[in-house]
């Protein structure tokens, strides 16, 4: 088997005396949609935060395309090609949708101080590049009509799309989505599901945290289930949903029989 | 976007007219008193505009700005008086010294966020003032620095020279420096670099997740703003000719802060308008016995309650209401 795009080995994370992640091992393969499931407090978001450098790991290693990225700073990890969204939708709420997307491509240009002050040609070129990227993502995420709206005034669903769009504008290889359908009503979910499927078609690997069963079972190629910071199982959605331990974790022991 | 009508927009014309007015003022204002007020307006305007970059655009409430103004002023004064340097090399060196000290303070203070950053920088401000006040061998302490020379003349290629002995000539020097400051800040704010600053203001965590090196970006904004504060300080020192430790005091910082708040934080013209308005008013009302800071305090409270965006922010809101546009 080819080595995964992202490899996590024996990852542990302690918050004081609490072990939020306990020796988690998994791989994300290039081009797939990988989903992380688990009850509340099982460590899904913590796992994202450790991978993207927002929390330092207590133990274990994270490899991205064969390179050790454990405990690198968030901006460095974004530059390497891992983009993420946040559980509580984060956008620059006072800026327009377009401005949100332009800044998201900032990491791929230099924007040097002297070039900026003297208005050099290369700096202008960089700016054009960022605008072009923003236009492209605007189209891709279906936000063309909301282009000049203030991001904070959008619906929750559109804000989710915008935050995914911002992550996409960083030109990632791997996209980590923390509850992309959280707080969105059932009618609007199909929009987001469609968007994620299209992202997969663009050769971008997706890893998502998902609660809604419909999405979690239909969208991903493979699923991993966490409970109390430990990995219970991993596999194709159909098998995982029948796994005794998963049912126990979600519904309690009495239902498992 | 960039059509011909954009190039000749009313805003652009207004700015051009204002610059023209700025350059022609000495032809019909000959009173030394009014020219003095205008020079002070430009100097405070520069300081407030530079403070706006770190505070208004990057969202870091830097309460050490007055200290950098003082450092620039003292550095230039000492270089000229103690080392006998010419004004122009002293100006460049003073800006570099300000930036170096800004780097040392910034790298420590910027590790903190929000109100802790404000408190931290204010402590640095007090420390700087205390150092200037008590290092008597170097700075003459409370006696102050006397007799700082005016800028030396610039020789022109075909004989003749530009001198800075008269009031109008000094006015032109500070006016050009002010315009330069505004131009640099304008360029930065309307670029990817400025967008990174504003991203940090909007949401630092999100900015980091998008690959923006928050610490480096904040430090850069901090350094640019200190350099211009230092430059304003140098021009002040050479204009007034006398320095005392109070010039680096946190009261000065708060004046800059009030200029920014009343004019409109995070807008290009706001701090300038605030600085001009308050300087003119306070100079004209000098005969009347209202303690200035008390009056400022009331103004600040009123601004924060009724006019959150300051004068410029208020004007923008009014304009939107009148024109009925939805955008901002």
Describe the structure using short key phrases.
heterodimer, A: 257 residues, alpha/beta, Rossmann fold, 2 domains, six-stranded mixed beta sheet, 11 helices, B: 328 residues, mainly alpha, ABC transporter involved in vitamin B12 uptake, BtuC, 15 helices, 4 strands, globular
How would a textbook summarize the main sheet of chain A?
6 strands, mixed
Distance between the termini of chain A: 36 Å
What's the alpha carbon Rg of chain A, rounded to whole Å? 19 Å
Number of H- or I-type helical stretches of chain A: 11
Which sequence of SSEs, written as H and E, runs from N to C of chain B? Answer: HHHHHHHEEEHHHHEHHHH
- Poorly predicted ranges of chain B (pLDDT <50, ≥5 residues)? none
Question: In CATH's first tier, which class of chain B applies?
Answer: Mainly Alpha
Oligomer category? heterodimer
- CATH architecture group name of chain B: Orthogonal Bundle
| C-alpha geometry of chain B | globular
| Overall structural domain count of chain B | 1
**Radius of gyration computed on alpha carbons of chain B:** 20 Å
